[in-house]
Amino acid sequence: MQMDNELLALFPLTAAAPGGQIHIAGQRLADLAGEWGTPLYVYDAATVRRQIETLQQALAASYPGETEITYAAKAYFSLGFARKLAEMGTGVDVVSLGEMNVARKAGFTPGSIHLHGNNKSAAELAAALDATVHAIVVDSLDELAFLEDLATRAGRKARIWLRITPGVTADTHTYRQTGHAATKFGLPIHNGQAAEAIRRARRSAWLTLTGLHTHIGSQISQTAPYAEAIHRMYALARQVDFCPIEFSPGGGWFVRYTPDDPIIPISDWTDTIGAAVQQECRQSGWPLPKVIVEPGRWVAAQAGVALYRVGACKPAGDGATWVAVDGGLADNLRPALYQAKYAAVLAERADEPATENVHIVGKYCESGDKLIEGVYLPPAKRGDLLAIPVAGAYQLSMASNYNLGGRPAALWLEKERVEMLQPREEVIETRWWVGD
Ligand code: LLP
Q1: 3-state helix vs strand vs coil in the chain, percent to 5
Q2: Which of 116, 179, 192, 204 could be joined to 168 by an S-S link, Cβ 3.0–4.6 Å?
Q3: How many CB atoms lie within 10 A of CB 268?
Q4: Model confidence at 172, in pLDDT bands (50, 70, 90)?
């Protein structure tokens, strides 16, 4: 028997399963779990590099103007991971002082940093002004005034973009839609706030408006909402006669999590963006802006694999089997929060027939702590190693200490080399819990 190719394709680029033993970057997952413990997250270096190179090539083929990839740190960030991305030459989108500090320490130049957020603090804005980051992405008229005041008092000019809410609803979970009229993010076009912000920013002596930005949501598989958002933003720009020299349609492109998900080339996304921006510039008689895309999931998701040790197994009421693992909702909130679907494989028995219908659950005290409801595995037993692919984005970055557990370790896998991205949090090390 061989491991199902459909499943193997979800794993990182370097994954192989000789004799049913899954390897990544030439390293057996069972050895890594034995040495570093579980739950364990591993990131394949080759996959991160491939994603970035593929996107760079797609952008170059889709758009004749200048382009840049700015990684959305919220998908996954740690000092080690940030250093790798800085070496690969991406920019970075940060949303907090924490992410900004990590980015700076990892070697991102201020000119490669964008600060986002719908409620940036005075400290975050002051740090961005002080560092002279590439752009502070202003989210509201309130923030525009707040930043102008801070910039005036600091005697420092702020380079800004405006985050525009185009009134476009993307095809994704409602919690991930951010371009529609009812979102908390951005300056809406429909009620005139976006136009007003452009006028005010251009009048300010302390703000330099260089670009327009939107981010319409995440895990989006249709291109039409992107085209529509771009058309609406340029219609706005023409209305106030503002020619952006930088333009960002955000991130949000789709990633496959299970074999049932469609295969969609990234060029669908870049072609749509490239064509829409060019069409609008032709129509306006404006030069092409630099296009800056902000992928998070697309860079990090497929590179990551989550490894869990199977513990208690017992019959479930519906004829399936409960298979409990040593992690769950605290390291992966996505199934509970967005009903996200995943695939799973036994990492040392990947070639065995998947004959048993199981529900994979975590160890946390929540009925919603179900990683996968209804998946076929070879009959699983205590001690087996379970691998969940496409675990690299919005899992560790959203992890918690629920039930006072420590968050998992993460490793970076180069061929035959392992680097620690983040150490396992040991409960006894967390002094603020035990008070000494
Ligand atoms: N730019 C901005 C301004 C964003 O807010 C985000 C994501 C991105 C770029 C990157 O989006 P991506 O390419 O990763 O889709 N926790 C959710 C996803 C939340 C996305 C938040 N913003 C999930 O696990 O599905």
Answers
A1: 35, 25, 40
A2: 179
A3: 17
A4: confident
pLDDT over threshold 80, residue 76: yes
**Per the structure, how many domains does the chain have?**
2
What SS3 state is found at 24? strand
One domain for residues 10 and 51 = no
User: Residue 21 carries which side chain, given as an amino acid letter?
Assistant: Q
- Identify the residue whose C-alpha is closest to ligand 1 atom 18: 218
Give the pLDDT score at 334. 98
Task: Examine the fold and report which residue of 277, 299, 321 is the final residue of a domain before the chain moves on.
Answer: 299
**79: CATH:** 3.20.20.10
Residues 64-83 have a mean pLDDT of: 98
Whole-model pTM: value is 0.97
Kindly state whether residues 295 and 328 are assigned to the same domain.
no
The last residue of one of the domains, among 283, 299, 315, is 299
Least confident of 207-211, 287-291, 337-341, 432-436: 432-436
State the residue for tokens 């180069």: 414
Taken in order 371, 27, 41, 262, is the CA torsion positive or negative? negative
Whether 357 and 394 have beta carbons less than 8 Å apart is answered as no
Of 297, 302, 339, 371, which is best to mutate to test ligand 1, by the most ligand atoms within 8 angstroms of its C-beta?
297
**Ligand 1 pocket residues where CB is under 6 Å:** 72, 74-75, 93, 116, 176, 215, 218-219, 250-253, 294-298, 334, 338, 394
- Smallest Cα–Cα separation from 30: which of 307, 393, 229? 307
Q: Where are the alpha helices (DSSP H) in 285-329?
A: 297-300
Q: What CATH number should be reported for the domain holding residue 368?
A: 2.40.37.10
| Domain around 91 | 46-299
190 in the same domain as 82:
yes
The residues that are catalytic are 365
250, 214 in Cβ contact below 8 A?
Answer: yes
Are 141 and 21 members of one domain? no
